[in-house]
Amino acid sequence: AAFIKAAAADRRARCAEGFLFPDTYEIAEGASAADIAGLQLARFKRVVEPLIAQSYAADSDLAAVSKKGSSSFSAWRNRVVTLASIVEKESGRAEERPLIAGVFANRLRKGMKLQTDPTVIYGIIASGQPWDGNLTRKHLDEAGPYNTYEIPELPPGPICNPGLAAVEAVLSPTGSDYLYFVARGDGSHQFSRSYAEHRRAVRKYQLN
User: Fold this and answer.
1) What is d(CA 68, CA 11) in angstroms, rounded to the nearest whole number?
2) Helices and strands of the chain, counted as H and E runs
3) What residues contact residue 199 under an 8 Å CB cut-off, 6+ apart?
4) Of 28, 77, 95, 138, which has the most beta carbons under 10 Å away?
5) How confident is the model over 184-202, as pLDDT tens digits?
């Protein structure tokens, strides 16, 4: 609870994950876990939060994550970091992060479900269910706050601690009309504009 408060995380989030900025730190011998988490929270506020605040103040066109007029900056910031955490988990190549962020922005703008596996996996582990690394149809159909195959919005909090590049990708996504992507198996993705096109890509790259 103390870390959630210190991070100003969404009250529905289970912890301060997302706001413990991943970086290289000098840590004094004997430092406690709380000391180290404090360093990470402070670095987030110094490095990441100003970028988000600058974009918010500039009234950037971030309709996908912004709910201006109906929520506070803190709530909007949490949505940015949550989406950045999903981009972090989905992107295997740095150059694809802004494009993946753009796909999610397009889906949110259209009211489509994100349907992203990493959020489902996070929800499984967070709920204490056994996890053997095999995501099944049962998992995708199971209701839960992190199952983006079921909920038509972002999950209640980040699913990892995103790096600066993922946050920047969400703040400046690549504009496109892509709505889908599938892993090619080499760290890159095939992007598609329609579901029919996406299904062909799935057959090619996932089902061989």
Assistant:
1) 19
2) 9, 2
3) none
4) 77
5) 989 899 999 999 999 999 9
